[in-house]
Design a protein that fits this description.
mainly beta, elongated, 3 strands, 24% strand, 1 helix, single chain
Amino acid sequence: ILASKPLSSDIDLETTVVKDLTNKSTLFIPEAIYKPFANTAIKISGVISQGENGEIAKSPNQVRVSISGSF
């Protein structure tokens, strides 16, 4: 039986290469977050908040990353 088990994690923008601002659909996630699920079918999605001038928000609370896979 395969069950979906979603995870959620806040990541610190100052210690993570998060995003290429020229490609707003790209989100880079640290290996430490997804490596435990390397043998599963993984779907990774994330949302990044940007400041008024386009800079990446520095608060970890403004970055939500969810990882879901079959376990």
